[in-house]
Amino acid sequence: MKKLIFVLISLWVAGTLFQSCDNTKTYAELLEEERDAVKAFIKDSAIRVISLEEFEKDTITASKEAGDDFDEFVAFSNGVYLQIINRGDKETKAHFVNGDEICARYLEKNVATRETACFNIFQPDWQDAGRVYTQPAVFRYVNNGTSSAYGIFTEMDYLWSSYYQSTAVPAGWLLSLPYLWNGARIRLIIPSKMGHSSAQQHVTPYYYYIQSFSKAQS
């Protein structure tokens, strides 16, 4: 009888372990789910994707917000998608350069769930949350031409500091800067490997509406 009980317990433990292992997804499987989520987002949003070669002919993308008939995003080889709604100040054409302090006003959404994750621009459901809107995120842009560009948050807005805390700026944000001028407005779809630390940890792609990338006033 004791042997039978031992066998039954062993089978139950083995089955539990098997089920646990079966429910654990590999990194490759998570990446495949991420790619599927991005494809579905692009399809559901009726986005027209163009190649980098096509984009670099004029560095312009169509945008409904700018009065065009459709939304157009350029696809980069690292999985980032970029739409330029407004390139920025056409009078000065002031590019972002090494050492600039850049203020970012943005909305972030989880591509897979379509849920709003983080933001510092006005949202109707959060209109009474004054702390959310009091300040932009501010980061220092480092691009000395000898190594990969990176950004460091010198001031984090209320939600970003609450949720993510990391001072590293998503690499996908930085990829857009060479194409922009002061005061630019863009949209981005950023895969986990080009996102913030939480995106990388959970293999989560994010959509961003960057209402403004502007040089901080000195």
How would you characterize this protein structure?
By secondary structure, the protein is α+β, with helices and mostly antiparallel strands. The chain has a single domain, classed as Chitinase A, domain 3. 30% of the residues lie in helices and 27% in strands. It contains seven helices and nine strands. The longest helix is centred in the first third of the chain and has 21 residues, at 2-22. The chain is globular and about 55 Å long. The termini are far apart. GO terms for molecular function: peptidyl-prolyl cis-trans isomerase activity. Keywords: Signal.
How is the CATH topology named?
Chitinase A, domain 3
Give the integer mean of the pLDDT values: 89
Count the E strands. Answer: 9
Q: What is the gyration radius calculated from CA atoms?
A: 22 Å
Uncertain segments? 1-22
Structural class from helices and strands?
alpha+beta
CATH architecture label name = Roll
Count of all domains: 1
Q: Number of helix segments?
A: 7
Morphology = globular
Write a brief structural summary.
The protein is α+β, with helices and mostly antiparallel strands. The chain has seven helices and nine strands.
Write the layout of secondary structure elements.
Elements (H helix, E strand, L loop, with lengths): L1 H21 L4 H18 L2 E4 L1 H4 L15 E5 L5 E6 L14 E10 L5 E4 L10 H4 L3 E6 L7 E6 L2 H6 L7 H6 L7 E7 L6 H6 L3 E10 L3
Parallel strand pairs: 1-2
Antiparallel strand pairs: 2-3, 3-8, 4-5, 4-6, 4-9, 6-7, 8-9
Characteristic key phrases:
Chitinase A, domain 3; 218 residues; disordered N terminus; DUF4827 domain-containing protein; signal; 7 helices; alpha+beta
